[in-house]
TrEMBL record:
It is found in: Cytoplasm. Pathway: Purine metabolism; IMP biosynthesis via de novo pathway; 5-amino-1-(5-phospho-D-ribosyl)imidazole from N(2)-formyl-N(1)-(5-phospho-D-ribosyl)glycinamide: step 2/2. One of its GO terms (molecular function) is phosphoribosylamine-glycine ligase activity. Keywords: ATP-binding, Cytoplasm, Ligase, Nucleotide-binding, Purine biosynthesis. It comes from Streptomyces abyssalis. This is Phosphoribosylformylglycinamidine cyclo-ligase. Residues 54-170 form the PurM-like N-terminal domain. The gene is purM. The keyword Ligase applies.
Amino acid sequence: MPAEPAESSGATYAAAGVDIEAGDRAVQLMKEWVKKAQRPESVGTLGGFAGLFDASVLKRYERPLLASATDGVGTKVAVAQRMDQHDSIGHDLVAMVVDDLVVCGAEPLFMTDYICVGRVVPERVAQIVKGIAEGCVLAGCALVGGETAEHPGLLGPDEYDVAGAGTGVVEADALLGADRIRTGDAVIAMASSGLHSNGYSLVRHVLFERAGWALERHVPEFGRTLGEELLEPTRIYSLDCLALTRTTEVHAFSHITGGGLAGNLARVVPEEMQARVDRGTWTPGPVFDLVGQAGDVARGELESALNMGVGMVAVVPQESAGAALATLADRGVDAWVAGEITGRPAGGGAVTLAGDYAR
């Protein structure tokens, strides 16, 4: 009889750093969370090659416009990795995507995610997906699928990055934007929950590299540790904004992300108009002062990198401002009239930030 072939000593996927069994276990752990992030239109189960969503929901629209957005969380993931706390990052991811969708008035329908890891740790991946699923529930959208990829050699064993894409729908004649804005409109600011998910390269440079602060350091102004403050989840405004469009007239929204209040509000201000915002109408949270003081960061630099306490802006007719504030208050959103839309002076910019912050 021929001899049994010797066991191969050749290269294997596992030896290259990819653990298929760990990936399978991660899928099993995340299933319970994905089930929680469904809508009636969700079709199929976790594990398919594509996520499915019943598009017959669009039949109730006369002219449905699909809106699409994609984003990540940036270097905030480095803080999560150092803290070994990962579910809030998933929440952040949803916020960054769905709050871009709602700016045009679109209802978020579904999301997909992409998680790239240096090494699959099933429990860690499940934590990230848990946060994504919980964020989808808060946003009113479904998590219909995603991908977890293991990239040894490209990322360290405990490193990862996340990205997501979302789809929403808005009736064509309800589309919000610059063409609806009129002189005299009120600029309503909605409070952020903190830094949200932008400017962390500056924050980490200032607090860790320059100031040498530890994540475990208790900060009296925060009433908690520095790490806990930095991982405060990004506020999800999508359902609040949609409620606003149902209860009062809204001309535009602006999601305040990278570029700050002025940079993002400028994206919805018509060329012949200007948004005049009074800094004196609010007090930025202590984390913004901390970054500015610890790094001797100029106010203009802070305002271009951080949201300074405003996460979303609504532009509404002046006569609708009271009703808008009442709706937001009923939903637990701290909001205030921060400025108004005026004609743009010769040589002026789209947005002017005036005065000093209230203290």
